Amino acid sequence: MPRFFLIATAALLVLGIPVAFGGTTSDPGITSTSIHIGGTAPLTGVAQGFRSVAEGANAYFKYVNARGGVNGRKINYEYEDDQYIPSETVRATRDLVENKDVFAIFNSLGTEQNEAIRPYLNQKQVPQLFVATGGTEFGRDYKQYPWTIAYQPTYISEGTMYGTYIRRTMPRAKIAVLYQNDSYGNDLIAGLQRGLGARKGNIVSKVGYSATDDNVQSEIAQLRASKAGILMLFATPKFVIQAYQYVNGLGWKPKIFNNAVSSASNVMVLSSSRGQNKRVEGSISIVFLKDPNDPKWKRDPAVLLYRKIMKRYNRNGNIKDVYNLYGMSAAFTFVDALKHAGKSPTRASLMRAATHLSERNNPFVLPGMTIRTAANDHYPMDQARLQRWHNGRWISFGGLLKARSQ
Amino acid sequence: MSRLAVARTIAAALAFAASIAFILIAPHWDKVGDIKGAQMGTYFIAIVGLNIVTGYTGQISLAQGAFMAIGGYTTAFLVTHGVRDLWTIPVAALVAGVFGFLLGIPALRLSGLYLALVTFGLAVAMPDLIAWDKLSSVTKGGQSIQLFGSKHLLGQGFNDVTVLGHTTSFNRAVYYLTWAIALVLFLVAWLLLRGGPGRAFRAVRDSEVAAASSGVHIAAHKTLAFAIGAAYAGVAGSLLVIAVAFADPQSFPAKLSLTILVGAVIAGLGSMWGVLLGAAFVEFLPVVSVHISKSQGVPDAIYGAALILIVLLLPAGVAGLLKRAASPLTTRLYTRS
Amino acid sequence: MTDFLQQVVAGLSSGSIYALLALGIVIIYRSTGVVNFAQGEMATFTTFIAWTLVDHGVGYWGAFGLTILIALAGGFLLERIVVRPVEGKPVINGVILTIGLFILFGGLSNWIWKAEVRSFPPSRPFPTSAWNLGGVAVSKQDAGILAVTLVLMVLLWLLFRYTKLGLALRASALNPTASRLVGIRVGWMLGLGWGLAAAIGAVAGLFTAAAAPPLDPNMMRPVLIYAFAAAVVGGLESPIGAVVGGLVIGVVLNLISTYDTHLHLDLDRVRLPLALALILIVLLARPTGLFGRQVVRRV
Question: Does A309 reside within a domain?
Fold first, then answer.
């Protein structure tokens, strides 16, 4: 009899000690010294310009690891190339989850790409964290997909901010829209219409283009024929640069709104042709991160940190590329969630932390912005400021705006 | 049978056995795995199909990826409308085959390079064609078709699948399904090509004039070759969609057609000996290149350079290499018998 | 009416680029019998070389000229070393080789210069302003590009038709053995064909970077198929056909997308399929292109 108790006690001790001291848990990808997360990004192919979203995040994780990691765990972020092709995203993500045993999927880029893997990840109960896209569905569908959470302000909320601003300040102006013919462009339009409210009839011309087009000359010419006073550019950087050039070439002088995806300072400077193209002057956009090219943040501690991290951990990266900073911001939020996931995080506890964020100290976002989530609010960021391009730089105006994300 | 024929049969049997061994081992080898292995299988099927059109009948087609798209979308459409995924595969083959035949008709009037350019145009235009609003009742426009969770899909796309008493994971089941179909289709192609149709195809390729004078119906065989090649591609596309439980226009870019063509050339056009290695090349060279350097552009540069070297040094592909390697043996056999 | 004309002007502008690229494809085909799938990527590569020169302090026009010379030499060497072995071989070999070059040059451009967004030239080669002709804006830059394209077309046509060099080029392609017997240095002619095409490609790339910015490694990818369409429609052997083909395609595609509202076919979404349809229709009517020669084979 006593022997039984001896053995039982020994067994309990052997089993109990690791659990009590926060060692390995039953979820894959996590040990007492490391956590292995995965993601996909277009490292090659048509969208390869956005690879810095993953590279910037990776650099930030390396920085955190050099300081001991999170709760003694180093973050191993493995991102794979999906060439911006959703079926590749599925393959790579399945590989990461089933063969590489990652703990969570983080910062995967693209709307269709994330849509492709969303049901799979939710079925397997693998966190799909902070998707790198402004698609509305990733926050909206939380009831059906509770393991998925968005990150940046949605395209709909961005469009709404523009619409509201126009309704208030230029209620009679006619509006022309250049948009990319996919959910990104369509979401921006939907937001614009919502913001305009009763004035949505002011949109007199909408011309779409396909991402496979070579130039948007014909589209801009069509839009100019509408004689609108406002031009919305709901397009990616390449086509925005072209649009500014063609608008100038046609002698058309509308007030131009440029979307956040293409509003990085280096893109604006390029569009201005070193100051020769005056159409960029007065352009309006929104901003929610600190643009490292913007002189007003030159001495900001976050931007200095950004430069330090880039220099140390992402030498080959382009320091002017704001998407590196975006990646760092997402990584910062991930680390924040991980810290709140407990001493032995599980996928469930990480998800819980991610859906109970109240992050006020993210250095990479605008001052005063709070990244907040709840079980029924899977939109971490829903604030931004309007900004105007003047004399070669962005100048924010108005306060922090909040827009409905869906 | 002559000694040469005996030797060839033995070699074929050995190659076959080695391939089967590889297929059985591959999923357990972590450098390959189920997912990449299944993708390699879809390339294999598409390459066999392209070989029939281009290698054996001499019609250059850069549109194999476009026919994969047709097959893939057929499967996606049918599964969402209640058809069990496995039954959609032959339908996909049929639909793609019909479109292949339709392309084969104007192709009759186009010679080599013009045909290459037209088929290239089809490959480039296909994603936009799929995304066209007017076709959206079938293709859902630019939006993707999500098959995950459908009860008409093997294992609903994620669950373990039980077949004949054995239970395996979804990925593994897809892998075996793909390769089982690949083997069957390979045998069908082999039988076809060593029989009457194959001889006719080769005759058309080598000399249309001579073939016509010998009574071969040129137009029928040319369009038939296109149809068969497209049907194979349709099966490949169907399996691709089943494997990822997802269909969208960007999954079938122009690059896919180029990849299949490259695979067929590496394998050796006009011969079935090298197809497995051709499929392995196009599946794994990019993976290997990424390991050499993750820098932008390096994997592509390596891929392009490898392609150029192979065309210059081994224009008959792996099959040609195998023939040359075996020639000391075969010449001896030939001269002795 | 002005809207219509504006679309025509825009079409001529895009079409000039298609035409220039198609010119290079035609030259190569005419002189070596190969269709160069890599024409666009080579153009991009040489444009980046020009960018690098300017980045190191060379003036724009100096870099322009230097790049053309580099392209001339580069194309020549490429033909001698890499392309020569596939000439006269089955068509498929040339297709695969040039696809390999397409992938290789694309990879090199990405590797050496990365995917950053750049503008080129840093200040315009042509003025940015436009003429206003009765409400229709014609950009001076676009007019210049069209003018250069037409001039090149005429020069090449004259070269092939009326000069001894052109004759030698054509002869070398048609019958290398006989040409050698007559004393033509066939090897040099073949190389020259590629050199010329590479130089024209460089011009195409430089103009594209200016007219359809930014300069990035993938900039010619969307254009290649339109250039093929132009070359095919015009007939793979005709410089005039290539240019007419390019301009027609540019204009027709623009007009279709602009005015399809009456047809309710959403044709503005399917520019690429329309280009393909155009190729098919022309080839079915005339299998060797609008300006191509009918090939008669003796049995």
Answer: yes
Number of domains within chain A: 2
Residues A147 and A162 in one domain: no
- A99 vs B30: CB contact, 8 Å cut-off? yes
In a domain? residue C278: no
Looking at CA atoms only, how far is residue A284 from chain B in angstroms?
30
Count residue pairs from B and C with Cβ separation < 8 A: 151
Residue A380 lies in a domain: no
Structural Rg of chain C based on CA atoms = 19
Q: Is the separation of the CB atoms in A77 and A70 below 8 Å?
A: no
In angstroms, the CA A209 to CA A219 distance is 7
* DSSP result, A180-208: ESSHHHHHHHHHHHHHHGGGGGGEEEEEE
Contacts of B262 in chain C (CB under 8 A): 96, 99
The shortest CB-CB distance from B118 to any of C95, C271, C283 is to C283
Domain of residue B190, residue span: 3-336
Per-residue pLDDT reduced to its tens digit, B293-304 = 777 788 889 889
- CA-CA-CA-CA dihedral for C222, C226, C229, C230, to nearest 10: -150
Comparing A101 with C122, the larger pLDDT belongs to A101
CB-CB: which of A44, A225, A242 is closest to C212? A242
User: What is the per-residue pLDDT across C172-210, written as a single tens digit (0 to 9) for each?
Assistant: 888 888 888 988 888 899 999 999 999 999 999 999 998
Residue B41, CB-side half-sphere exposure with 13 Å CA sphere? 35
Please list the helix, strand and coil fractions of chain B in percent, rounded to the nearest 5, in that order: 75, 5, 20
Q: How confident is the model at residue B318 (pLDDT cuts 50, 70, 90)?
A: confident
* Of A210, A217, A241, Cβ closest to residue C269: A210
Distance from CA of A174 to the nearest CA of B (A): 27
Q: How far is B203 from chain C (nearest CA, A)?
A: 16
Cα(B56)–Cα(C219) distance, rounded to whole angstroms?
Answer: 36
Q: Which of C29, C106, C115 sits opposite B300 (nearest CB)?
A: C106
Of A264 and B167, the one with more pLDDT: A264
Residues of C in contact with A245 (CB under 8 A): 213
In 3D space, the residue among A75, A78, A77 whose CA is nearest the CA of residue A33 turns out to be: A75
Q: Which of A217, A239, A276 to mutate to test the interface with C (most CBs of C within 10 A)?
A: A217
Q: Is the pLDDT of residue A197 over 90?
A: yes
Task: Tell me, yes or no, whether A3 lies in a domain.
Answer: no
Report the residue of C14, C114, C268, C274 to disrupt the A interface, i.e. the one with the largest count of A CBs within 10 Å: C268
Number of domains in chain C: 1
Does some domain include residue A393? yes
Chain C nearest-CA residue for B209: C299
Tens of pLDDT, residue by residue over B220-247, are 999 999 999 999 999 999 999 999 999 9
CATH code for position A259: 3.40.50.2300
Q: Is C234 part of any domain?
A: no
Look up the domain containing C213 and give its range.
17-219
Q: What range does the domain containing A356 cover?
A: 13-153+299-375
Supply the CATH number for residue B7's domain: 1.10.3470
**Nearest-5° Cα angle at C155, C149 to C160:** 125
Which residues of A fall within a CB distance of 8 Å from C15?
none
Q: Does C295 map to a domain? A: no
List pLDDT tens digits, range A163-178.
999 999 999 999 999 9
Structure ipTM: 0.91
Distance between C262 CA and the closest CA of chain B, angstroms? 15
A85 with A117, same domain?
yes
Contact criterion met (CB < 8 Å) for B121 and C107: no
Q: Which residues of A touch C110 (CB under 8 A)?
A: 44, 48
Contacts of B114 in chain C (CB under 8 A): 232, 236, 283, 287-288
Per the omega criterion (within 30 degrees of 0), is the bond before B90 cis? no
The partner residue sitting opposite A249, judged by closest CB among C137, C216, C253, is C137
Please check whether residues A262 and A332 belong to one and the same domain: no
Average pLDDT of B188-197?
90
Q: In this predicted structure, what is the pLDDT of residue C297? A: 56
Evaluate whether residue C183 is within a structural domain: yes
Arithmetic mean of pLDDT over chain B = 87
- Residues A255, A266, single domain; the answer is yes
> Stretch B172-178: mean pLDDT, rounded?
90
What pLDDT, on the 0 to 100 scale, is given for residue C122? 66
Is residue A389 a contact partner of residue A268, using CB atoms and an 8 Å limit?
yes
